[in-house]
Design brief:
This protein has about 425 residues and is an alpha/beta fold. Helices cover about 55% and strands about 10% of the residues. It has 18 helices and ten strands. It has helices at about 20-30, 45-50, 55-65, 85-90, 110-120, 140-165, 185-200, 225-245, 260-275, 285-300, 300-315, 315-320, 340, 345-355, 365-370, 375-380, 380-390, 390-415; strands spanning about 5-10, 35-40, 75-80, 95-100, 125, 135, 170-175, 205, 250-255, 280-285. α9 links the parallel β9 (about 250-255) and β10. α1 (about 20-30) packs across α3 (about 55-65), α5 (about 110-120) packs across α6 and α10 (about 285-300) packs across α18. The protein starts with 5 loop residues before the first strand and ends with a helix.
Length: about 425
């Protein structure tokens, strides 16, 4: 199976919402937009909760069978490298090769010299169709970029070849460079794609670091116009690389949004329509928060579970937030006391958590802390998962509504939420 022009990566910490997630994609298909659903879960998330890639595969397969879905769908080994690829091989057909840790390591001068000798055509003025001002690439700039990314590309090749050797059919390959401090520029992307093409790496998507902050579970923080300029130029650089470097025709840009980047969806929609380009959006963990919202709305003992998770999260703040330190912005002074939250009714609890900044009860810090607190729910075991099953209907309604109305419709259909 190949990805369709549009694809949508959705995380599910507890592998319970596959049907509700697929329903959001089915609603898009009913309006004439075909999207490949991709269920993704990282090694870290599996280890924290105690799940396995087999459970993600079963969730996806069962949802697809139940719905009679006959279009492409995938299970993503999210953010993998050589140290954990084996863990995912049997059950995944989409591999996000994360090489952020290899960027900026430098390499031998001979390797850089060899690249420059081979690609003298990229030194000087490079015109990219659709971009008004041509790129100016000096020899010094090329040396710097090749040195910064050479080891990362070499690692991509190592993992890529290993995957191909161990899979009967070529899976979807994504190269991920987004989890770094410094954004990649369109010029850097051009040279990165040239290095990937030189190694004959047939990637399907590439995930970059953009300007601004992509905090978990909340909206984009940054200059939207600047993001739009970068996004458009990246689309056009990929188009150029496909045409000139012989990369796969289906290659498209991937945005690892960290969920809920609502302010970016209109410019992204307008630009993929303008240039008739594909897009992969990895939306990640909003499903876990929609489960909590559903439990809150169910009230009584279900709402009490959410309050218990929050109380424990306050006590373990540093432990839970440390892995997400670079992608959250929590103000401790804005976090309500556990005693205050215990007095809230279900609607207040849901409104504080649901990502609707216009609502007076919404609390961004409260939401971000609970985004990091799925470990506690995992420790609760059947007390939590039994509650998910008992309140499957209301949770599923929230999951489908959130994914379709607040993500898919604005991004892929151009409908403003």
């Amino acid at each position: 199976m190949q990805l369709t022009t549009y694809s949508f990566g959705t995380g599910d910490r507890f592998a319970r919402q596959g049907t509700a997630q697929l329903n959001s994609v089915i609603k898009a298909r009913e309006q004439g937009v075909h999207i490949s659903p991709v269920w993704n879960k990282s090694y870290r998330e599996h280890q924290i909760i105690g799940t396995s890639p087999r459970e993600v595969r079963e969730e996806a397969d069962q949802a697809v069978e139940k719905a009679g879905w006959e279009e492409p769908y995938f299970v993503d080994a999210d953010h993998i490298g050589m140290d954990n690829v084996d863990y995912f091989l049997e059950y995944s057909d989409f591999f996000t090769i994360d090489v952020a840790d290899y960027i900026g390591k430098g390499t031998e001068v001979e390797a850089v010299d060899s690249f420059l000798e081979l690609h003298q055509d990229l030194i000087g003025t490079v015109k990219i169709r659709g971009i008004g001002e041509p790129f100016t690439i000096t020899e010094a700039k090329m040396r710097q970029v090749v040195s910064d990314f050479w080891e990362a590309i070499a690692e991509v090749e190592k993992v890529y070849l290993y995957i191909l050797e161990n899979k009967d059919q070529k899976p979807v390959i994504e190269v991920s460079m987004d989890e770094v401090e410094t954004p990649q520029t369109p010029v850097e992307l051009l040279l990165i794609l040239r290095m990937l093409a030189d190694r004959n790496i047939k990637l399907d998507t590439i995930a970059l670091k953009f300007s601004g902050r992509f905090n978990k579970g909340v909206d984009y923080v940054g200059n939207v116009d600047q993001f739009a300029r970068e996004f458009e130029q990246d689309l056009l650089v990929i188009d150029h690389a496909v045409r000139e470097f012989g990369l796969p025709e289906q290659l498209k840009l991937s945005v690892h949004s960290g969920s809920d980047k609502f302010s970016l969806y209109k410019p992204m929609h307008d630009l993929i329509m303008k240039h008739e380009k594909g897009l992969h959006l990895k939306t990640a963990g909003t499903t876990w928060l929609e489960e909590l919202i559903g439990l809150a709305l169910a009230g009584n003992e279900a709402a009490d579970i959410v309050k218990q998770i929050y109380r424990r999260a306050l006590d373990r703040f540093e432990e839970l937030t440390a892995p997400y330190e670079t992608v959250i912005d929590i103000s401790r002074s804005e976090l309500p006391a556990a005693e205050e939250v215990s007095s809230w009714n279900g609607n207040h609890l849901a409104n504080a958590l649901r990502h609707d900044p216009s609502h007076p009860d919404f609390n961004s810090s409260f939401r971000q802390l609970l985004h990091c607190a799925y470990k506690i729910a995992g420790e609760m075991g059947s007390d939590f998962t039994d509650a998910l099953e008992a309140h499957e209907e209301i949770i599923g309604e929230n999951v489908t509504y959130n994914l379709f109305n607040r993500h898919i419709a604005p991004l892929f259909l151009g409908e403003q939420y």
